[in-house]
Amino acid sequence: MIIGNAGQGGGKRETTAAVSVERVSKEFGAGTYAFRALDDVSVEIASNEFFTLLGPSGCGKTTLLRLIAGFETPTGGDIRLAGERIVDLPPFRRPINTVFQSYALFPHMSVRQNIAFGLEMQRRPKAEIARTVDEMLALVKMEAMADRTINQISGGQQQRVALARALAPKPLVLLLDEPLSALDLQLRKDMQVELKRLQTETGITFIFVTHDQEEALTMSDRIAVMKDGRILQLGSPVEIYERPQTRFVASFIGEINLLDAKLSIGRNGKPSAKLGQGQSIALSDTDGRADGEGLLLAIRPESLSVGPATKAGAKGKITNIVYRGTDTIYHLLLDGQELRVRHQNRSRTSKVFGIGDIVGWSVEPESVAILEDG
Ligand SMILES: Nc1ncnc2c1ncn2[C@@H]1O[C@H](COP(=O)(O)OP(=O)(O)OP(=O)(O)O)[C@@H](O)[C@H]1O
Ligand SMILES: [Mg+2]
């Protein structure tokens, strides 16, 4: 647990990136035992941004947070905070705080004492400490429990105290390493909303780590999807979800259909993807590909719709139907490739198809992503 030294560089908040990670690498061990946990990572995180690192276990998320916090030194590259180099500063000199997965609260101290701890370490005036602690208690809605010890409050309440303690010194940047993973689903959902509110109200830059894609999509301004020590894709939740660039990003986040196709540029210059046996779907652009080139397409199940088969349109045979209350998933087979279509069950009178039916399917060109590593 580190309580940051808040209040530095505040004047630069609006103009400079809060955190710049510049070509950072981190190797653990040496020689044949060397392991590259981060490989040439660059990213600029804006002030007041809710920024999320998302990726599978071992991809380097915690390592990147630890480098920003100062618990590790990069093997190569640089890290700046509000424009100033920080790699040579010890953790306590950085206006950065961390909330760890295990909240590391002091069990026998009261909620109030826990929140005051960092401010006391900084020898802030007593009146200021009291005022800030009251402010933080209100922020996390724990006023009524201020004098209980940590042993006397629930897991979710402890989570709120850990946040209040980290926020109290008003750091420029708050690092959160899977802070919600110990909570049950309902509490986790409540805390997601709560965290987002805290970030908006305080204006502090949040760098949040998770391997839960839904959590990342609902909370973040931007998401960096990581794999094997690299950032594979960086973008808004909408960009990451709707325009994945690689097979990994497409499949890591939500359900998706992957289809092999061939690019065909019509006489009118309009691109389409040929799926074999004369079936084709329109594309919004060629992504710089040439006529006849092989493509790997990614399409979300909810972007597809089914309807009666038409002569000219794309067709498929229904091989399975999964009813899920709010929607129905149709499994279509087309030329050896499978396609899953999510159909929202709007009314009971909507056309119902059966297994074995040949149906038509369609998708808007904008909802078809061409993957780079196809
Ligand atoms: N001190 C260390 N010495 C050697 N290897 C390490 C060290 N710390 C981390 N690693 C390795 O670096 C890689 C990245 O680890 P890191 O903790 O950053 O992963 P993560 O993305 O946070 O994963 P998780 O989701 O499981 O927490 C892992 O393969 C890990 O084993
Ligand atoms: Mg980790």
Question: How is this structure best described in words?
Answer:
- With 374 residues, this protein is of the alpha+beta class.
- The protein has 8 helices and 20 strands.
- Strands 6-7-8-3-9-10 form a 6-stranded mixed sheet, sandwiched between helices.
- Helix 2 runs parallel beside helix 4 (155-167) and helix 3 (126-139) packs across helix 4.
- The longest helix is centred in the middle third of the chain and has 18 residues, at 185-202.
- It is elongated.
- The model is unreliable at 1-14 (pLDDT under 50).
- It binds adenosine-5'-triphosphate (ATP) and magnesium ion.
- Residues 28-29, 35, 37, 55, 57-63, 211 line the site of adenosine-5'-triphosphate.
SSE blueprint and pairings:
Layout: E1 19-28, E2 35-45, E3 50-54, H1 61-69, E4 76-81, E5 84-85, E6 96-99, H2 111-121, H3 126-139, H4 155-167, E7 173-177, H5 185-202, E8 205-210, H6 213-219, E9 222-227, E10 230-235, H7 237-242, H8 247-252, E11 257-265, E12 271-276, E13 279-282, E14 294-299, E15 304-308, E16 315-323, E17 327-334, E18 337-344, E19 358-363, E20 369-370
Helix pairs in contact: 2-3, 2-4, 3-4
The chain binds adenosine-5'-triphosphate and magnesium ion.
Strand content: 25-35%
Widest β-sheet, arrangement of strands: 6-7-8-3-9-10
Let me know the largest β-sheet: 6 strands, mixed
- Please report the first level of CATH classification, the CATH class of the largest domain: Alpha Beta
Percent helix range: 10-25%
Q: Provide mean pLDDT, rounded.
A: 90
Tell me how many strands there are. 20
